[in-house]
Amino acid sequence: MDFEKELExxxxxxxxxxxxxxxxxxxxxxxxxxxxxYIVASLALYVIGVSDFYLGAIIPTLGFLLSTxxxxxxxxxxxxxxxx
Length: 84
Known about the structure:
The chain is mainly alpha-helical.
């Protein structure tokens, strides 16, 4: 009986871990974080009086998006070179 409960607990944990990983790598999350980054950067630039603040806010947003696109590729390259 205890074995079955432990197995069920492990399966539930694995499902949670898989869901967390799916969220972390989802396009929806990347776009959501990008939108939040753009809004916060726009507000900050507006508050400090930057003209064309809405254009300036594109820079950190693009930085985030580029990092989400390049880091997985660099990670795969690093793993191939160092682990395999």
